[in-house]
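Q: I have two molecules that I believe assemble together. Could you output structure tokens for the complex as a whole instead of separate predictions?
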Amino acid sequence: DSGVTQTPKHLITATGQRVTLRCSPRSGDLSVYWYQQSLDQGLQFLIQYYNGEERAKGNILERFSAQQFPDLHSELNLSSLELGDSALYFCASRGTGSYGYTFGSGTRLTVV
Amino acid sequence: GENVEQHPSTLSVQEGDSAVIKCTYSDSASNYFPWYKQELGKRPQLIIDIRSNVGEKKDQRIAVTLNKTAKHFSLHITETQPEDSAVYFCAASIRIQGAQKLVFGQGTRLTINP
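A: Yes, here they are, computed for all two components at once.
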């Protein structure tokens, strides 16, 4: 167990639907990062939050949004889902003053 | 700019031989370079990292070297074992919009042949 918790582990939904992925960072970590990994692809940075505030955006689609709550957990909202959104979505957290990321186990999203 | 190139994309070696994976980065301000191992369907796990103030770091069968002048770093695995088979990602830290983030290479699928 890495200390970063992601739910649900698997999600199957239809095109056009909306889903919410949840991430709880390691205790004490203020930074949360979201990454998308499509089949046999690398890790594409989506967005970062630090202590409740958005800090950096990557290649995140307008149909996607995220937020970090006062208890530091984060949610990634994906709407108007398309087949191409099927992927593994990873959350990672990082402690202040630390450089390394710790990844959660991911949410596998399948859009049918 | 932010770019990390990783080579090769696939690598097959005989058990017991060495494996080397290479990465180059573009941001001269990058100062942290981790390597992650990802087994099929699982999360990426940090296996070794190096800061820009050192040129080499070793942990048992794994070592990483860094050449800041050339902006490249490499992962070396010696005496490879079947359990080393996985996808390996390099990454480099960059600062963008005032925040630190990691940019990942595209990954190397390493297969150890018994």
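A: One point stands out. The CA atoms of residues 34 and 54 of chain A lie 12 Å apart.
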